[in-house]
Amino acid sequence: MDVVMQELFGSDIGLLSLFTIGFIIAMGLFLLARFLKLSQKK
User: Fold this and answer.
1) DSSP per-residue codes, the chain
2) pLDDT the model gives residue 42
3) C-alpha dihedral over 23, 8, 11, 19, to 10 degrees?
4) Domain tally, the chain
5) What pLDDT is stored for residue 28 in this prediction?
6) Which residues neighbour 16 within 8 Å (Cβ) at sequence distance 6 or greater?
7) Cβ atoms 14, 7 nearer than 8 A
8) Half-sphere exposure at residue 6, Cβ-oriented, CA atoms within 13 angstroms
9) What are the CA-CA distances from residue 29 to residues 21, 32, 33, 37 (Å)?
10) Using CA atoms, how far apart are residues 11 and 23, in angstroms rounded to an integer?
11) What is the pTM of this model?
12) Residue 14 near residue 8, CB atoms below 8 Å
């Protein structure tokens, strides 16, 4: 597992993929929260 983390944080592509995955997860949670709030109003 250490080698994988070193590879991810050590290379530009690894950092970029980590950022992309984090962004997708954040957007998913944001959209889910908005959807739940909208459905509660009805």
Assistant:
1) -HHHHHHHHHSHHHHHHHHHHHHHHHHHHHHHHHHHHHHHH-
2) 65
3) 0
4) 1
5) 98
6) none
7) yes
8) 3
9) 12, 5, 6, 12
10) 18
11) 0.58
12) yes
- Smallest CA-to-CA distance from 21 within 13, 33, 31 is with 13
**Single-letter code of the amino acid located at 22:** G
1-42 confidence digits (pLDDT tens):
788 777 767 778 877 888 999 999 999 999 999 999 999 876
Structure tokens at 1: 């597992």
pLDDT of residue 15: 79
Residue 30: domain span: 2-41
What's the pLDDT score for residue 14?
75
